[in-house]
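Entry:
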Amino acid sequence: MIRKIVHVDMDAFYASVEQRYDPGLRGKPVVVAWRGNRSVVCAASYEARRFGVHSAMPAVHAERLCPHAIFVPPDFIRYRAVSRAVREIFQRHTDLIEPLSLDEAYLDVTENKTGLPTATRVAIAIRHQIFDELQLTASAGVAQNKFLAKIASDWRKPNGIFVIPPDEVQTFLPPLPVARIPGVGKVTEERLKQMGVITVANLQALELSLLEQTFGRYGTRLHQLARGIDHNPVVPNRPTKSISAEDTFARDIPLSETEELIRRLAEKVWSASRKEERVARTVVLKLKTSEFTILTRSYTPIAPPGSCEELTAIALSLRERITLEPSQRFRLVGVGLSNFREEESLQSPLFE
């Protein structure tokens, strides 16, 4: 049976929530971030994005790109409350909801509660209810699996809907840039480019054995996604186990030269973690040597990291626990957060 999957992605969620609470911000370039040299952008309204401002960007850089931007400090209690209201709308239509973060989720509407005849009608109803009840806009993608639905939801952003019918998958995919495939970051994209792969059509032409030899298990995944194949079901209430970001250096470098990238990766991870309803306890640093040996160091402080600066400081301190020779070179570094817990469970009782 062909599944009917909807991917709903709220438009510029944090910024849109701030514009809803303060009508004076509507139509203006809003940047959700604390000011300061160490602060990063949590979200930017579409008015600010026109100037090149985007999430995870240093706030000082955003201010240079858009000097007249209005900076608003993030209010995650407010965002979580609105996210719960959006989730309640989803639940009117299906119980098969897989949240990815506060502002996006997969819904399996193969059988929906409201008796609507198509997944497209369900997506339209959800978007209308979000707008009518919460004064916010959402984009939606409709397709036969999660991979295609996620691509579709981004197709007509903001405030749009796009449908990929099953009989159009094989004409829709081939012209797409391979960077559209989830998991294809800059490093993988460059490696594929060196293999002559620019589009999904180029990827489809490669043998499975070559992809597995080059990318390991992810090569198998690439082979399937290039053909629109994704058997992963929508899994309700899947708790986040970890959030991480990593990057490969253009050349192998000594440990002493990794600080700048560790800082950038920590900013990305911190920004992503703010979309979670739970709090991470453990900071992880990952390094891969030029000989492909993977090293990890982790630390669980008494209280969870409370800021990007604190996360960065812990990640950098973990670097000091690498005891290899100074001549050792590294090809990859990663920063992560794990050991997620509910916020309430982290608070000590007032009286024992």
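The radius of gyration is 22 Å.
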